[in-house]
Amino acid sequence: MTLDPRAFRQTVGLFATGVTVVAAEREGDVHGMTANAVSSLSLDPMLVLVCVGKQALMASLLQETRGFSINILREDQESLSTYFAGGWKEPTPPPFRFVPWDGGPRLEGCAAAIGCERHQILEGGDHWIVIGRVVALHQGIEPRKPLLFYGGRYGRVDTSASTPAPDLGWVEVPVQIFYDPWQGDA
């Protein structure tokens, strides 16, 4: 069976993600790139990962620099996502500023930021899997509503009451439930 890359992209796009700007500094210049392939990886040691296309400028920067930051965008920062993704059409960029920080260049006004020291870079098809050891954390001021990406479009968290999923009946096969350490002692 042959799988269509476009169908794969559309299917994976149904997994809602946050939107970040990954930033690194080289020779006094800060470079940023929009990324949504970002995930926590480990609590001990604290590790995160970001996937960067091999052809992206950020791929070479992350191999040359010691650290980087992952800046989680707020719902009102869609223009920054577009700008750092290379899709900005206006003659001047949207307003933004990177501020010095223990974790590398931090995007001022972001919902949160994670400062990383490069830990490891692994090959992953047409992307590099960049693993960062967390060295600094920042949470922006309230409200910290994140910008989302879903189905090829930007979205926002809706905290209003919603209708429950339909009851599809009993599951015919046994389901194994594992302990989730993120939930603490149950």
Structure report:
The chain is mostly beta strands. It has helices at residues 5-12, 57-64, 78-84; strands spanning 17-18, 20-26, 29-35, 38-43, 46-53, 67-72, 98-99, 106-107, 112-124, 127-139, 147-150, 153-156. The chain is 12% helix and 40% strand. It has a domain at 23-151: Pnp Oxidase, Chain A, CATH 2.30.110.10. The chain is globular and about 60 Å long.
Brief rundown of the structure:
The protein is mainly β and 186 residues long. The protein contains 3 helices and 12 strands.
Percent of sequence in beta strands: 35-45%
CATH class of the domain at 23-151: Mainly Beta
Give the beta-strand count.
Answer: 12
| CA-atom Rg in angstroms | 19 Å
At CATH level 3, the topology of the domain at 23-151 is Pnp Oxidase, Chain A
Q: Characteristics of this structure?
A:
single chain, 186 residues, mainly beta, Pnp Oxidase, Chain A, seven-stranded antiparallel sheet, three-stranded antiparallel sheet, 3 helices, 12 strands, globular
Q: Could you outline the blueprint of secondary structure elements for this entry?
A:
Blueprint: H1 5-12, E1 17-18, E2 20-26, E3 29-35, E4 38-43, E5 46-53, H2 57-64, E6 67-72, H3 78-84, E7 98-99, E8 106-107, E9 112-124, E10 127-139, E11 147-150, E12 153-156
Antiparallel strand pairs: 1-11, 2-3, 2-6, 4-5, 5-10, 6-9, 7-8, 9-10, 11-12
